[in-house]
Specification:
It is found in: Cytoplasm. The chain is an alpha/beta fold and 511 residues long. The protein contains 17 helices and 20 strands. Helix content is 36%, strand content 21%. 52% of the residues are buried.
Length: 511
């Protein structure tokens, strides 16, 4: 779907999308269109349950002989309650509705909806929501019926400050590209995306200025990454450690810095983001049940989010230094596979008794986290992983689990998540939970008991965080994939975390 911006004029053809507020109060453009249509919108509202409440839509076939086909009224509720997310979701719902109606072209007219809101920014957000809704992963469908395919080919966003809106949309479009990168790679089957092919996708970011480094098994063995390597030793696919570096502060540079603050920022340590990249998880020797195992292609959702984040940051030229690391492995049960009871030595020197080979993600992250801290001395560390089924028992599919050793970082993440609709819920850490992973024969074991499974997994990861380093762990097992479409998020891979972390960087790390 092509999205363009234009002056705020009433369309003469195709579908028109306009707004209504609570109490059936039409926006200025909707009222103008209603007058042009001889009160058709007013009559339709009077004879329906549509009151302009948040999330309501009313579709009216355009009367008369003109080329205008239909009008879609979007309810926004009370003006004082309108948020950016509501703007995005309303536009997304309009795109979904018009696709099912068979429309080819539409014009979305964005007026000033509430005092204090930036109309140009609202228009850009509307286009962003429409773009996110347009995503489809359909490359393997060869016999889809025409009626099942989306029909909307062109969306014009008409608003008075259309030049400002277009400029604001440019950055949002790059964030959407990051979201789509994650959705694509997480949706791919495991015979297409495995450690080496994941790396090949990441190398496409080099043209945007992202520096790429890759460690193979020999390099990781020299560094002592026995924890990560043990997970992949049963697979024919070689494990990889992918390092992506976005040096956004180079755009400032010490030589070009106009202020002392900018010069200091140019020499700051980077933010480190680490993702679990188990491209397929059978469970290894502790093999999973057959039912639902096909879903384990998205057990690399954390790594997929890191890839999408780096795409978004590089695309919009974020003025921050960010390093993304993905531990990429395939967990398979052949004759060389790791066994329950094996003891491995991590890069940190700590030893781990492997109780359950299906608790493999934390083993991958342990070495990736340590390597990142050793090499980059980051100002803060965030990891993302589809780590535990226990987090779904705790939080369902509404929130990702947040664990952290730093209140400030936690607050920043919670705020960023609320701002983009990717909600987090902070869970506790503590000594009593940590004792649950003590081993009788090694420094630790990779699982505790059934109680507090998500917490003991986070406690395991915390043992690989250096003293004094702010750290947060996001368990995204319940939110990386959805079986129920929502506005801006279709069924399938959600790309949870891309927008959240992009917002975190923009509000707290950019110079």
């Amino acid at each position: 779907m092509k999205i363009t911006f234009a002056n705020q004029d009433l369309p003469k053809s195709g579908a028109a999308i306009v707004y209504a507020l609570a109490g059936r109060k039409l926006s200025a453009s909707a009222a103008q269109l209603d007058k042009q249509l001889a009160g058709a919108l007013t009559r339709a509202m009077a004879n329906s349950r549509f009151k302009g409440d948040k999330g309501q839509t009313l579709e009216v076939l355009a009367p008369g002989k003109g080329d205008l086909t239909r009008v879609l009224l979007l309810g926004m509720g009370a003006a004082k309650d309108i948020t950016d997310l509501m703007i995005e979701n309303a536009a997304a719902s309009a795109v979904k509705r018009l696709n099912s109606s068979g429309e080819n072209e539409a014009t979305l007219i964005v007026d000033s909806l509430a005092a204090g809101r930036d109309t140009g920014a609202d228009a850009a957000r509307s286009a962003f929501g429409a773009l996110l809704e347009s995503y489809r992963f359909d490359k393997y469908r060869t016999k889809e019926k025409p009626d099942a395919k989306p029909t909307l080919k062109k969306l014009v966003v008409a608003t008075e400050p259309h030049k400002e809106a277009k400029k604001a949309y440019a950055a949002l479009e790059e964030i959407a590209a990051g979201v789509f990168t994650t959705r694509d790679i997480v949706s791919e089957p495991a015979n297409i995306i495995y450690p080496q092919s994941f790396v090949a996708e990441a190398r496409k970011l080099e043209k945007l200025g992202v520096e790429i480094e890759v460690l193979g098994e020999k390099e990781m063995a020299k560094l002592g990454m026995g924890s990560l390597l043990g997970v992949g030793q049963g697979s024919a696919r070689e494990s990889q450690l992918l390092i992506m570096r976005w040096n956004g502060l180079a755009a400032i540079g010490k030589a070009k810095a106009k202020t002392a603050k900018a010069a200091k920022a140019a020499s700051d340590a980077p933010l480190l983001v680490v993702g679990k990249g188990v491209t397929f998880d059978t469970g290894g020797i502790s093999i999973k049940p057959a039912g639902g195992m096909e879903d384990m292609k998205w057990d690399m959702g954390g790594a997929g989010t890191v890839l999408g984040l780096m795409r978004a940051l590089a695309g919009r030229k974020a003025r921050a230094d960010v390093v993304g690391i993905c531990g990429l492995v395939e967990n398979m049960p052949d004759g060389a596979a790791q066994r329950p009871g094996d003891v491995v030595t991590s890069m940190s020197g700590q030893t781990i008794e492997v109780i359950n080979t299906d608790a493999e993600g934390r083993l991958v992250l342990a070495d990736a986290l340590w390597f990142g801290q050793e090499k980059f001395q980051p100002k803060a560390v965030i990891d993302l992983a589809t780590l535990t089924g226990a987090i779904i028992i705790s939080l369902g599919h509404e929130h990702a689990g947040l664990f952290s050793n730093d209140d400030g970082l936690s607050d920043q993440l919670l705020e960023a998540g609320l701002g983009v609709g990717e909600k987090l819920w902070r869970l506790p850490l503590g000594e009593a939970y940590d004792k649950a992973i003590n081993s009788d024969i090694a420094d630790m074991k990779n699982t505790g008991n059934r109680a507090g499974g998500s917490i003991t997994a986070a406690q395991f990861l915390q043992r690989f965080i250096k003293q004094g380093t702010p750290w947060a762990h996001l368990d995204i097992a319940g939110v990386a994939w959805t079986n129920e479409a929502r506005p801006t998020v279709p069924k399938g891979a959600t790309a949870f975390g891309v927008r959240l972390l992009d917002r975190l960087v923009a509000k707290n790390y950019e110079s």
